[in-house]
Design goal:
By secondary structure, this protein is α/β, with parallel strands linked by helices. It has 4 helices and 5 strands. Helix 1 (21-33) runs parallel beside helix 3 (97-112).
Length: 147
């Protein structure tokens, strides 16, 4: 019988230290959505160490990719980059679930050599643009009726 722990299967490493559960769930959903396996690694690290940890764990991954998540901060790193220059280093509010999912998708797309999803293409932004357009249109109509 083969022990899964000793087998270094190709996957994206996801390092966790007290992660925001809502963000973690969406990051993992993004990886799953793109069909790329991941391995969770519970670790202890500080906010100052998060980039270094993400880089080191990306080097351990056969895919060369790692995500580190501590509280609301997310770092996506690729082993071919310089240690101090991760692809993504951002803090997310707990309600920014769509952005968290996009980070997971983009980690997978990095491995698949596919174009990244944009944060600007999120549903929230599209809704915001629709609301903005509707308000501008209403204001123009209002101004025309007053003249």
């Amino acid at each position: 019988m083969i022990d899964n722990v000793s087998v270094n299967r190709p996957c994206i490493n996801v390092c966790l230290d007290n992660p925001a559960e809502s963000l973690l769930k969406e990051i993992l959903a993004g990886l799953e959505e793109e069909g790329i396996p991941y391995e969770l690694k519970n670790m202890n690290f500080t906010q100052d160490e998060i980039i270094k940890i993400a880089y080191e764990v990306s080097e351990e991954s056969r895919m060369g990719i790692a995500i580190a998540l501590k509280n609301d901060r997310v770092v996506l790193h690729y082993s071919k980059l310089k240690e101090n220059h991760p692809l993504i280093d951002m803090r997310l509010d707990y309600y920014e679930k769509r952005k968290a999912r996009i980070i997971g998708c983009n980690a997978a797309r990095l491995y698949k050599v596919m174009p990244f999803k944009s944060f600007e293409d999120t549903d929230e932004n599209q809704l915001g643009q629709q609301v903005k357009s509707a308000v501008i249109s209403a204001l123009k109509d209002f101004n025309l009726n007053i003249s």
